[in-house]
Automatic annotation (TrEMBL):
GO terms for cellular component: membrane. It comes from Pristionchus pacificus. Keywords: Membrane, Transmembrane, Transmembrane helix. It comes from the Eukaryota. Coiled coil: none annotated. Signal peptide: none annotated. InterPro entries: 7TM_GPCR_Srsx, 7TM_GPCR_Srsx_nematod, GPCR_Rhodpsn, GPCR_Rhodpsn_7TM. This is G protein-coupled receptor. Its main location: membrane. It is found in: Membrane. Pfam families: 7TM_GPCR_Srsx. One of its GO terms (molecular function) is G protein-coupled receptor activity.
Amino acid sequence: MSSNRSVPTGFCGVSSKMAEQDALNYQLYITGGTLITVFNLALGLIIVCHKSIRQQKEYLIYAGCMFFDVIFGLTYLSSGAFRLKVANENTYFPMTTKYECMMTVHNFLFVYITPGAGILVFVTAIDRFIGVFFPTKYMLLRTRYVYCLLFLIFTIPLIAIPIAVFTSMPYNVDCDQHAACILSQAITYQVYLGLRLIRIIGSLACVLFYVPISIKIFYNVSRASSAAYMATSQNRRLIRMTVTVILVTVNTICLYVVPDIILLFNPSTPSFAFYLMNMSKGLVNIVIFLVTQKTLRKAIMQSIKAKGANRSRLVSVTNNHIDQKTITVTSTRKFTMR
């Protein structure tokens, strides 16, 4: 690592901020981002690959949440990798422009997931409202309905990316941002505020749906006997999915929205703890899905057993092939000796 204050290639100045001070933080980003990406990708693929599960609308929504968290994990992984590289190559953070910060992979992803998280929980809250208050109509909906929801969830946040890029373009002259390139350095304050407000409003608006949803479910359970209501598989699935989605929303509010609100009102607050809270959201979601969804746990075990069976079958076939070769060679030798 260089100890001088010379300007690295590709940058236009050197800051007074020591780069190596935050190296451990960036390693945590890489580790956490990798875990979130791998586990959510695995769970999402298990749902997609099991025909009986992917035909259920609620599990397609779960898969959508998981694939969104894959992008979320990649965001922290790429962010940590970028900043760790800069920290390892420089004693002091180089200086760059706001626009150059925006043109990094991790900030493209941050611009995407920041409003995307609010949109995701808001749309799923609407879905739960329809499912609870109009269960008959909801049952008649096909999986195409879920694909349309997921299309909206994943495409609407894309609008934020060109807005962030174009508004950062005029700031490609002054080297006034150090090369850690956190999101607030990459975009204008107005865009930064807008992205966070979308996440805050979208997440908090879910309360408007989940309060009547909870009341409705409680009313249905209390009106009939609890045992009779829960005896219907459709009702059990309805409640189980609603509980899962509510927990995911509460997790988003606690680990995403609360830090957002604090940073909006007090931008000088040290943000590393909030970054860890944000990153933990993806890990907590994995636990929520595994704890609340018995069918998903069964599918995981089936996948593990199937993989083990395939491996055993492959070993058996290989051994048989080797034994067959041995028999052939032995027979040939005996014939030659005769």
